[in-house]
Amino acid sequence: MSPRPDRPPIDGRDARGPRPGRRCDHTDIPSVASRRRSHAMQNGNASDQDKLYRIRHSTAHVMAQAVLEIYPEAKIAIGPPIDTGFYYDFDLGAADDGRPRTFTPDDLERIEARMREIIKGNHRFAYREVSADEARALFVDQPYKLELIAGLAAGGVDEYGNETGAAPVISTYRHDTFEDLCRGPHVEHTGQIPGNAFKLMSVAGAYWRGDEHNPMLQRIYGTAWANKQQLFEHLQMLEEAKRRDHRKIGRQLEIFTFDDEVGPGLPLWLPNGGTMIEELERLAKEVEAEAGYARVRTPHLSKEDLFLRSGHLPYYAESMYPPMEMEGVRYYIKPMNCPFHHKIFGATQRSYRDLPVRLAEYGTCYRFEKSGELFGTMRVRSMQMNDAHIYCTEAQFEQEFMAVVAMYRRYFDLFDIDKFVMRLSTHHPKGLGKKYVDNERLWLETEDMVRRAMVNGGVPFVEVADEAAFYGPKIDVQIWSAIGREFTLATNQVDFAQPERFALTYVDEHGEARTPLCIHRAPLSTHERMIGFLIEHYAGRFPVWLCPEQARVIPITDDHNGHAASLARQLAAEGVRATADLGADRMNAKIRTAQLMQVPYMLVVGDREVAENTVSLRRRDGSRANDVPFGALLATIKDKVASRAKDL
RNA sequence: GCCACCCUAGCUCAGUGGUAGAGCAGCUCACUCGUAAUGAGCAGGUCGUCGGUUCAAAUCCGACGGGUGGCUCCA
To answer: Which of chain A's residues 410-449 bind strand B, using a 7 Å CB cutoff?
Structure first.
């Protein structure tokens, strides 16, 4: 099973907002926790979820007690339940060498052992409400708690520091020797925590309140379940996720590789990956031609002036490779294609009759992602984007925007992608002039336009504030990697800022110059992220049209090599990617090899097949068909490819 | 970038102070086989790099590089 959610939580609400009946997605959990979604939590009923929530929350408290016993000087921060368990953040103070003390893997074992002892004590969880002064006295040695209490006392902030807008009630839960600032709920006593259904998983650094300017705390992640079987299933699911990991399959299927000397985040596409890229581009070009896009091509770098005009440099210089200087002029490698497309739009005089203008390009971009942010091919520094920019009038906007959304859905149908969330990202007033172009009126107008278009089109979406692009709101399509990491696969952005900055105009029916709106869109994402995602989505078993190798001819003995080679040539002549395995292996070994490479069609040929020009067909799924006339099979394969069929 | 952990042959891994091993893959030979591994032989590593400790370092320490899990970030 994949840890991605079974059903996208499409409910028209903020993805981080409260959702009835799902305590593990309650607002008192920091945003990261609520963004990861658990398989189990989606399936269980409300009372199961409530029970798991209590178990996890209580296990976190027990862990904090164990940590405080081992490190009495430790300062405790926050410890919420998350969708597969819980975590707790600690500040362990300075070690002898003056550097921050950190947990060791041995600590985890000790802490876990002590936790089991505490659980056996059947200590009751006791709730009480306290005044702000009492709370301050209770946690006088706990600076992080004091900070949270200050927020609670001031109102509108919960015990995790998240804004609630609710009236402040300060409460604590106490069990055994440990009392924590906490709203609960908890199990009745520690004996209700199954001692064989939790496991401390990892140690990680985490910034206090998620802000990298704050000190880094030590976080321990744990997983906790209602019983031993559930824990076992969860651990098995993690193993299965590792098997589908695109980094592993990408190596096994010889799709891509990385080389230390080339550099981190700079994938090398092997021939199999190259083939897949060609197929994706073929798809995109067909679909875009049909939808009235024109193809353009632009350079990989430009003068600094271009990115100053676009506004990218002041906003995103950190994510760009540093400039290079030639003949006294600074050049940047492009992190995006839009400024170039804007220049193409602006290169000719445009009439309202020409609009919409849709410019498409699989543009190659380079972004300097921090080293710790790289992740296989899903997060890289060089990428080729399924990019296009649509220039249109305000009157055309809704239709154009929804046509792009329809294009997403067409692709997602083709790939059977049903686990995703469409997310409308809007601005936040506090970021105006910093993260965002400073024009609140246009922000509100375009956000409303997008919202209206989505609602009119009947497209479910969630809305999140403060996640927009600097030039406008956007609709992102969020997907999850095999190991549960969330990514934006496709994006659809409204840009009300750049057309003006580039002085782009068209002449309207009254002869007046007007500024067009621009829609940025990338439904097929980047090749890097798309192929990484597809590898995990299909676990390497791609539909025939996308397979690097579509058919392999396997002779039974050397006597059939000539015939096998001839069949492979005939397949290739008809555009089917096929090879003949003429090696010294036995037939069984050749089948195994082809099977491991996920070749969809294996054509076994022996004496009978040579005599009758048939093949004995083995498909990747293990199904077989004997005495298939070669011509008929060739026609079938060609049809599966041409129709981009989902089946074999 | 920050915290923790990891890096031994193309791949998966064993080896925890006395100078390197296995399986698979590769190559050669034999076998000529009916739907997931035929057998034998050969070759392949300055143990990520550099420095330190030691009579002796894959093994201990440090720096750097790369990776993994998180945090931050994600146009």
So the answer is: 435
Is residue A16 domain-resident?
no
Strand B within 7 A of A206 CB: yes
Chain A 20-39, CB < 7 Å to strand B: 30, 32
ipTM over 0.90: yes
User: Which residue is it, tokens 């099977």?
Assistant: A595
Q: In this structure, how many other beta carbons lie within 10 angstroms of the beta carbon of residue A322?
A: 9
Residue A469 C-beta-side C-alpha neighbours within 13 Å: 24
A609 touches strand B (CB under 7 A): yes
Count how many domains chain A has. 3
3-state secondary structure of A87: strand
Q: Where are the beta strands (DSSP E) in A481-572?
A: 486-495, 506-507, 513-514, 517-522, 551-555
**Predicted confidence band of residue A41 (pLDDT cuts 50, 70, 90):** very low
CB A338 within 8 A of CB A366: no
Which nucleotide minimizes the distance between its C1' and the CA of A617? Answer: B35
| pLDDT at site A218 | 92
CA A177 and chain centroid, separation = 41
* pLDDT tens digits, A505-554: 999 999 999 999 999 999 999 999 999 999 999 999 999 999 999 999 99
The answer to whether the CB of A560 falls within 8 A of the CB of A606 is yes
Report the distance separating Cα A119 and Cα A222, nearest Å: 15
The closest nt to A611, taking CA to C1', is: B34
Q: Which nucleotides of B are covered by protein (CB under 7 A)?
A: 1-5, 11-12, 25-26, 29-39, 65-75
Phi/psi for A522 (5° steps) reads -150, 70
Burial status of residue A143 (CB atoms within 10 A of its CB: 0-12, 13-18, 19 or more): middle
Judged by phi (left if over 0) then psi (alpha if -120 to 50, else beta), residue A478 lies in beta
Boundaries of domain holding A94 = 23-233
The distance (Å) linking the CA of A407 with the C1' of B62 is: 55
Region A114-141: mean pLDDT is 91
Beta strand A551-555 with A578-580 is: parallel
Same domain, A499 and A635: no
Query: Count of alpha carbons within 13 Å of A539, Cβ hemisphere only?
Result: 10
Nucleotide nearest to A604 (CA to C1'): B35
Q: Who among residues 567-586 of A has its Cβ near strand B, under 7 Å?
A: 583-586
Provide the CATH number for the domain around residue A393: 3.30.930.10
Q: What is the CATH number of the domain that holds A565?
A: 3.40.50.800
The verdict on residue A473 lying in a domain is yes
Whether the ω angle into residue A168 lies within 30 degrees of 0, i.e. cis, is no
SS3 A625: strand
Determine if residue A396 is left, alpha or beta; phi over 0 gives left, psi from -120 to 50 gives alpha, anything else beta: alpha
Boundary residue ending a domain (A205, A233, A261): A233
CA distance linking residue A232 with residue A198, whole number of Å: 10
Q: What is the full DSSP assignment across A251-315?
A: HHTT-EE--TTT-TT--EE-HHHHHHHHHHHHHHHHHHHHTT-EE----SEEEHHHHHHHTHHHH
Question: A602 in a domain, yes or no?
Answer: yes
- b/e map A472-495, b = 16+ CB within 10 Å: bbbbbbbbbbbbbebbbbbbbbbb
Are A533 and A548 part of one and the same domain?
no
